[in-house]
Amino acid sequence: MISFIQENQDLLEEVVSEEKTLSIYNLIMDGGIGGQIIITILFVLLAVALYIYFERFFAIKAASKVDKNFMNQIKDYVSNGKLEAAKALCDTTKTPTANLIGKGISRIGKPLEDINTAIGNAGKLEVYQLERNVSVLATIAGAAPMIGFLGTVIGMIVAIHEIANAGGQIDIKLLSDGLYTAMTTTVAGLIVGIIAYITYNHLVVRTDKVVYQMEAKSVEFLDLLNEPV
Q1: CA-based angle 32:35:37, to the nearest 5?
Q2: Domains of the chain: total
Q3: Do residues 150 and 41 share a domain?
Q4: Per-residue pLDDT at 107
Q5: Mean pLDDT comparison of 102-106, 170-174, 200-204, highest-scoring range
Q6: Is the separation of the CB atoms in 197 and 46 below 8 Å?
Q7: Backbone φ, ψ for residue 70 (5° rounding)
Q8: What pLDDT was estimated at residue 12?
Q9: Are residues 148 and 48 in the same domain?
Q10: Which residue numbers delimit the MotA/TolQ/ExbB proton channel domain (predicted)?
């Protein structure tokens, strides 16, 4: 008798354990075709967001690396009239700051205002390159939660449809597909949106640092040209 009760208790614990355990995969699969489509779209958006973030992160990180002696070498070359050597140094450095200085060196001999304008135009191109595809992250940050809410609306419509067709006898199992769709897509949309929002702002901050660096070095170069001979 005792062993029989113990076996029933063990069986009951296993059933309760199975009922409490629900994997993410099961949540997605139990959400119906509508929920699966929404989750797939959000997964693709997440993959795109992560790819853009890491690609831009390493590109911006490389762009921010400038040799501390770079400007000292430029000053020495320009002061001694070695413009070709200064231009070659900028070409081999291959950073946005070096590109701006190289553009300015190539215009030496023209009015200072023309040099300043050339550097400014080159700076806009460099900033554009740094910010390439970053706006896509902002779009994903705004669109992902809305796509998730779209899944919520679809799920609630499915749930209400099941209630209407239940004939007054509501079975929770009939509502599960709609409710799973509503909850899982909302959570997935918010997760993707939060990740995209954080990565976007992080890239913006790092880009601003590089832009500030470019501006500082450009001013330093223009001051060098303004120094009396």
Answers
A1: 110
A2: 2
A3: yes
A4: 81
A5: 200-204
A6: no
A7: -60, -50
A8: 43
A9: yes
A10: 94-215
Q: Does 199 map to a domain? A: yes
Query: In this structure, what are the phi and psi dihedrals at residue 3, rounded to the nearest 5 degrees?
Result: -65, -35
pLDDT score, position 145: 92
- Spatial distance between the Cα atoms of 195 and 102, rounded to a whole number of angstroms: 38
Of 130, 157, 182, the residue that ends a domain is: 130
- State whether residue 64 is helix, strand or coil: coil
Q: Would you give the distance in Å from CA 175 to the centre of its chain?
A: 36
Question: Cα-atom radius of gyration of the chain, to the nearest Å?
Answer: 30
Element (H, E) at 74: helix 70-79
Q: Which two tokens stand for residue 77?
A: 């070359």
5 occurs within a structural domain: no
Mean pLDDT score, 85-106: 84
Q: What is the pLDDT of residue 24?
A: 53
Q: Are residues 75 and 48 in the same domain?
A: no
- Domain termination residue (choose one: 113, 130, 147): 130
Range of the domain at 184: 30-63+134-224
Residue type at position 4: F
User: Is the Cβ–Cβ distance between 101 and 74 less than 8 Å?
Assistant: yes
pLDDT band at 34 (very low <50, low <70, confident <90, very high): low
